[in-house]
Amino acid sequence: MADGLRRLVGAESGRVLQEKLESWYRDYEINSCDQNLNRCCEIIELNSEIQGQLFTILNETSREGGHYAGVETIKTRLLPWLGTCFSCATSGRLFETNLSLTQDSIEKERQLRELASNQTFQLQELQEELTSTRLQLSHVQQDLAKTQLALEDTKTKSATTLLAAEDEIVQLKAALKTSCAQEKDALRKLDRLNDYEQQIQILRDEISILDAQKSVLQSRFVRSRSPSPRHSESKSPSPLPLRSCSPGRARRTNASRRACLVARFGDIYAQERLDAETDLRSYINDMERVQRIIYIAAVESFHAAKTAYRQFKIRVRDTLALGHSGPESLEDAVLDYIVRHEDLYDVQASVNEVIRSMNINPKISFPPEIDFIVISTLIRELCRVAFSMQTLVPPLDVAFGIDGELFSETKYHRSFESDFTAALVAYHVWPALMENDVVIVKGEAVTKRGALLSRSRSPSPLRSGSPRH
Question: What predicted TM-score, i.e. pTM, was given to this entire model?
Answer without folding.
Answer: 0.48
